[in-house]
Amino acid sequence: MSNRSATVLLDTVLPQATLAQNALLVVGGSLLVALCAQVSVPLPFSPVPVTGQTFAVLLLGATLGARRGAAALLLYLAEGAAGLPVFAPGGLPGVARLAGPTGGYLLAFPAAAFLVGRLAEKLPRRWWTWLGAALAAEAVILAAGTAWLALLTQASWMEAAPLGAWPFLPGSLAKAALVALCLPASWWAVERNRLRDS
User: Is pLDDT at 42 greater than 50 in this prediction?
Assistant: First the structure.
């Protein structure tokens, strides 16, 4: 695998993407997050479920890049705020979801996608750099979500952490590791295809 600091996967696949193609990528990215949101496991001790959303956030940032990834997540939030059924099942509908217990996590998604995308754009293409980028983005999501829970419950961050951060650490590690495994395989397939076509 290349050790170059390089662009993200989609910029290699579509180096001259048109405005229409970028728009389709952003819309498709928002729909991927909506689909992954339907994988939701409620926790009896927390108002925050375990969902597949954050995996999609990490994957979009790492493959689409910072700007397209963040745009896809902003569109996703707009879709949910407008009342479309894109958020995880259960909970408050529409814009009320953003003010509810999971609002901090949701609002952190664009920043997390931007962060992992920017790091993927700048760092060498190695599994450990992707793992570090994914973990940094997961930390942003968990910190924002826990801070929002603390604000809603008028608790300290450390009092809110057992509800909003600690239970999600194993899943966050697993999702980051999955991204770090998926990306090398994707790059290998793209580079192999380019060599075959050249």
Answer: yes
User: Does any domain span residue 143?
Assistant: yes
Closest CA to 108 of 82, 73, 135: 73
Question: Does residue 49 fall inside a structural domain?
Answer: yes
Specify if 146 maps to a domain. yes
Q: Whole domain around residue 118: which residue ranges?
A: 9-197
Residue in 37, 32, 99 with CA at minimum distance from that of residue 60: 32
The pLDDT of residue 1: 39
Looking at every residue in the chain, the average pLDDT score rounds to: 90
**What is the value of pTM for the model shown?**
0.90
Q: Count CB neighbours of 92 within 10 A.
A: 14
Instruction: Give the count of domains, the chain.
Output: 1
Residue 52 placed within a domain: yes
What are the structure tokens assigned to 132, written together?
């570090």
Give pLDDT tens digits for 80-136: 999 999 999 988 889 999 999 999 999 999 999 999 999 988 888 888 888 999 999
Q: Are the beta carbons of 104 and 58 closer than 8 angstroms? A: no
Distance CA 105, CA 195 (A): 41
Q: Give residue 3's identity as a one-letter amino acid code.
A: N
H helix or E strand, kind and range, residue 16: none
Residue 23 pLDDT > 60? yes
In angstroms, rounded to a whole number, what is the distance separating the alpha carbons of residues 176 and 191? Answer: 23
